[in-house]
Amino acid sequence: MNMIEEYDEIREVTNPVKKEDLSELTKLQTEYLKELNIPSDVWEGMSKEAQSQQLGFILERFNEIDIFQQIDREAIFSEIYSSKIVEAYKLLEAPQDYIQIEQIADMFSECEELRYENWRNLDLSEKVNILNNLEIEIAGIEHRQPCPIRALKMPSHQFGGYSPDSKSIDINASYIEQSGYDHNMFMEVLDTLVHEGRHAYQDYNVNVYEIHPRHSEVASWAETMEGGKWGYHGDTSTVLGQRLYEQQSIEIDARNFAMDILDKFEQKQIA
Fold it and tell me: What pTM does this model have?
């Protein structure tokens, strides 16, 4: 799963969402931000925990009201995160990895749609909607901006990718469809969601604002994103290239992070 993917002649297979007039978007935006209408002097006097709780309200609102079929996803993400209130969110240090892992696994286990008997009955657009909602929750836990999730037609060897340019996560549409009758593929789709979301977290720390508790890890990610000591960017056309790609710090980190979450999620399902 590449952090930076170039998709030539790839078309989006989900139905396009008609972009609404920006005045309507602003109206909806205003409703969401009412819960966060805090005077600046009050905001500055709040603890980081209280600020985080208040900022979390906006993410909860997304789950309470399904707006993804009404408004262009990328437009609303852009509008939401251009607000000064949410801009302050990036100043809050993210939880330690073990806390993020536990919270994301808990969130997965509490999601009714992720019960496989429910998931298998959803169509592609419904699954993509759920994945978008999950990504919003994950981003809140990780203290970063959420990425729009897109289901795209990709070569069979590609599960998905994160684009640092569009700040979006793309997942192979065929695999999302197969996840409805193949439980292993269902887990792979969730793994891809978390893995690529971790790349978004790495990108945020390196290129936007450092919120990760361990600076040494962020420094290692930055080195890899710049090509590393060998100028290596991810050529997987050879066995050696694939091996080098897999051993990059950002890939080891994303792979282990996703694996830990999926392991805990499965344990919680059995318990």
Answer: 0.68
